Every structure is written in C-alpha cells, then in structure tokens.
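G.,

No rush on this.
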Amino acid sequence: MAEIEGDTKLFDGLSRQGWIGVAFWMSFGLLIEGLIGFRSPSYLSDPVRRELFRLAHTHGTVLSILLLIVFVYLAKNFIARPVAAIWSLRIGTVLMPVGFLLGGIWHYESDPGVMIFIAPVGGLMVIFGVIAIAVSTFRK
C-alpha cells in the first residue's frame, strides 16, 4: 500500500509540474507575441534573443506536455516507475528551457549568454530519464 501512495504523490507532483509548466511557457509565448505585435525594438532587433526566447517557449511547452503530462497517464498502466529517471525528467524539463531563456536575456553581441550551458545539462537529464524509463519497460 505504501508503494501505491508513494506513486500517487509522485504522479501528482509530475502532473502538477506539467500543467504549471504548460501555463507558464504558453504565457511566455503570449508575451513573445506581444513583443512582436507592439514592435518592441529590444526584441525585434536582437536575433539571438528572438531565437533563444523561441527555443525556451517551445522546449518548455513541449517538454511539459509530452514528458510530464503524457508520461503521468501512460506510466500508471504501462511503464515501470524508476524514481531517479522521473526526477531527472522533472529537473531536466525545467533546466533546458530556463537555460535558453537566461541565455537570451543576458547575452553577448552574437553569442548566447553564459547561462546557456544550463540547457545542455537539462537536455542530458531528459535523455537519461527517457532512456532509463525505456529500459525499465523491458523489465516489467
């Protein structure tokens, strides 16, 4: 019974993080659209910022939907539950888009800012989580 309660808390946290992530990154996308619509010179004249903000919005939204929300519904029936992989997914889905966002806020003339190095760390964590979950499905 303790395992089921632990799984419920784990899945509730995943679901909550997924929906909060979708709400945040979709709102961020709306902000980007507003910057374009109001012809913000600080956004439109900066191609590095535009690209990194788009990457942050896209990765944040897609990772929140696919890797967190969809995983919750699939994992309850089909997938074993490796806790380390799930935490890796949760942390990676935050680090990757935040790395893009921070790399676009503070950046050099034609290069992303130093905080862009957070994005590949998040990407590696997501890849580890996905591979660990894929391997765990063979054991079930």
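When you get to it, here's the other one too:
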Amino acid sequence: MKRIAITFSILLILFLGSREGISQQAFTLDPNPNLKVSGTSSIHDWHMESKKATGKAEMTLGANGAETIKSLTITMPVESLKSGKGQMDTNAYKALKSDKFPDIQFVLTEVISINGSQIKAKGKLTFTGSTKVVSIDVTQKPVGNGVEFSGTLPIKFSEFNVAPPTAIFGTIKTGDALQLSFTVIFK
C-alpha cells in the first residue's frame, strides 16, 4: 500500500511539474509600442513619445489575457523619446543623463492580483542610475496570439534624483510630477 502511495505521489509531482513547465510560454514585445511621458512646465503641458523598446515575458494566456505572469521586462532607449521640439529633447536627454544611462527599464517583481482584465503588480523602474519599486495597475486584453497591456504610472523626477529640466537660462521650468503611459503588446 505504501508503495502505491509513493508511486502516485511521484507521478503527481511529475505531472504537476511538467504541466507548469509546459504552461509558461515565452513572449516578446511587439516592435511598435506606444510609450509616453507627460508633465507640466511653467508655460505649458508637454509630452514625449517613444515607439521603440524591447521586452520579453513568460506567462500563461487564457480567454481574458494573461492568467499568470512569471516574468516581464521592458527596456526603452531614453533618446527614443521625442517631443517634436529638438531643444526640448536635448534638455530632456541631458536631465536624464542619457550619455551615462541610455535606457529606462521596468522589471516585474510581483503580480499582486489578476482579476479578468485588471492586473495589480509591482516592479523595479530604473532610469538615470536610480531604481525604485513601483506599484502599477494595468488593464489587459487578448490580442491575436498575445496580450495587450496598458496603464499609467505617476512618478516624480525627484524620486529618481533627477533635477527637472529647464530652458532659456532657467526661466522655463519643468514640474516635478510626471506621468508614464503605455500600451504594449506581447506576442
């Protein structure tokens, strides 16, 4: 009897272990993400957009999108952010120290909950050499053989030891508060 129980336990462990291994799938970031940084200044609101980033994820998909997310990373080159105004871009790259720290990166550290189309998660956000753990609410929806994630994240320059950019000898000042917005697809 003990032999049957041990054999059954071993088979159960092998089945569950192999099922977990099979269910996790590797995904890569679609080459056309929509990433946006927006903020305020002493004269007007502003935004910069990027359509360039790389990323990878390991997750399982179901009818509503991701059911589990084992890992997820997105890396965006700082100098892919464009405002349409050359001097503003130059000031932003200087403030973000793009010559020393060329990338902004998000690395998922914890999925708190997945409830249908709503995900609550934590991750490490890194830019200008500073890393901060952030909490983020994400909306998801299935797209073809992948999933689309979208959301916004309020942060501050000062949280990352960055002096907000200025222009025209300091007469135009950028506010400390920023909003990061994203819509990305992993396939």
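The CA atoms of residues 95 and 165 lie 6 Å apart. DSSP finds two helices and eleven strands in the chain.

Enjoy the weekend,
O.
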